Amino acid sequence: MQGRKQWQQKTSKLLEIKTSVKPWQSIPPRRREQIILSRLRIGHTRLTHEYLLNRSEQPFCETCHTSLTVRHILVQCPNYALERRNRQIPQNLSEILNHSCNIKNLLNFLSDTNIIYIKYKITNIMI
Q1: What is the pTM of this model?
Q2: What's the domain of life for this entry (predicted)?
Q3: Distance from first CA to last CA of the chain, Å, rounded?
Q4: Are 76 and 90 in contact, with CB atoms under 8 Å apart?
Q5: Per-residue confidence band for 126, with pLDDT thresholds at 50, 70 and 90
């Protein structure tokens, strides 16, 4: 009970999509997919946070001229709207990352748009 209270009082990107301390509904079978999903869930990906490691400028979406974030890519950016619609990606970050029925579509969306490829191409040390 106290652990749940502490969790709900925290401020984090993960709390936006996971409101309880219960285990995730689904874990992808492959390790690479588990890593991708975990990084998306905490909001820290190579694509969105590499600038912190390199001490460079924060990346911005070339289409929208806004900060490049997991939320922006998966929910907001019009550049990916067609692919999101084709893959039936919900418009709610919590639904995308917290429901097992959406995980396969999400991974296919990331592959279709080469977002996974971009992250892995940048470096093979950290995903």
Answers
A1: 0.72
A2: Eukaryota
A3: 34
A4: no
A5: very low
Say if CB 20 and CB 94 are below 8 A apart. no
Burial of 61 (0-12, 13-18, 19+ CB in 10 A): middle
Contacts of 103 (CB under 8 A, 6+ apart): 26, 28, 33, 37
Rounded to 10 deg, the angle between the 31-42 and 100-112 helix axes is: 100
Q: Which residues of 24-50 are buried (b: 16+ CB within 10 A; e: fewer)?
A: eeeebeeeebeebbbbbbbbebbbbbb
**Residues facing 67 on adjacent strands:** 60
Domain ranges of the chain: 28-122
Q: Which residue has 């984090």 as its token pair?
A: 12
**Is-contact 52 94, C-beta < 8 A?**
no
pLDDT at 3: 55
